[in-house]
From TrEMBL:
It is a multi-pass membrane protein. Residues 1-21 form the signal peptide. It is found in: Mitochondrion membrane. Keywords: Membrane, Mitochondrion, Repeat, Signal, Transmembrane, Transmembrane helix, Transport. It comes from Rhododendron simsii. Its main location: mitochondrion. InterPro entries: MCP_dom_sf, MCP_transmembrane, Mitochondrial_Carrier. GO terms for cellular component: mitochondrial membrane. This is Mitochondrial arginine transporter BAC1.
Length: 231
């Protein structure tokens, strides 16, 4: 799961920067899907190269818990040891195992995230345009919480199956196993149905709302402090 604060911070900073720069500046007026989706998807593709290797290390560290079936001789001493051993035994392609699935998850997820974010933000501000100037800061925080939280939920509601497939690809001990996420999801669906493809949805959604709400509120506050006006 893409759940550590570093990944979230990097995701938001790079995604928002690329998304806004590709749009030629901060968007004003009604959100335009023809602009949001391509720019957000591109930023997701870029950040997937950063996330892939770090998430591979994280996933492999998580599955080797003390109660796992991983023999002690094959366990990693830490994240650095995991990365070095992966590079030594599997090469550069090994450390980027699951890269295609990560790219799909981030590109599709980013498009969903920013489409939701821009529209929720736009319509909430439209409804609150008559609010007192003295309440502007409170309104901004409220809008940030809702737009960020709902965007995070939308992101994971759409791409969680890809994340499930990515985790299987990155933690598989069989080097000859398929890296095709669609084949993996088809196999899961045959065994466990749609529920299997959405393993962990509940905790992910519960975590997604506050984490993304906090990140968006912080970013919106930073934009305001820098004097960048958004309509």
């Amino acid at each position: 799961m893409r759940d550590n604060i570093l990944s979230l911070s990097l995701f938001l900073s790079l995604s928002l920067s690329l998304s806004l720069s590709l749009k030629g500046g901060l968007q004003s007026g009604k959100p335009q899907l023809s602009v949001i989706i391509p720019s957000a998807a591109f930023s997701g593709a870029v950040i997937s190269f950063v996330l892939c290797s770090s998430e591979l290390v994280k996933c492999r560290m998580q599955v080797q818990g003390t109660d796992s079936l991983v023999p002690k001789s094959a366990r990693y001493d830490g994240p650095l040891d995991c990365a070095l051993k992966t590079l030594r035994t599997e090469g550069v392609t090994g450390i980027f195992r699951g890269g295609f699935t990560t790219l799909l998850r981030e590109s599709i997820g980013n498009a969903v995230f920013f489409t939701t974010y821009e529209h929720v933000r736009y319509y909430m501000h439209l409804k609150m345009k008559d609010a007192s100037p003295n309440q502007s800061n409170l309104v901004d925080v409220g809008v940030g919480i809702m737009s960020g939280g709902l965007s995070g939920i939308a992101f994971w509601s759409v791409v969680l199956p890809l994340d499930v497939a990515k985790t299987i690809i990155q933690t598989s001990t069989d080097r000859g196993s398929t890296r095709n996420p669609f084949q993996i999801l088809k196999s899961i669906h045959v065994r466990s149905g749609l529920k299997g493809c959405y393993t962990g949805l509940g905790p992910t959604i519960v975590r997604a709302f506050p984490a993304n709400a906090a990140a968006i509120v912080t970013w919106e506050l930073a934009v305001k402090i820098m004097g960048i006006k958004r309509e």
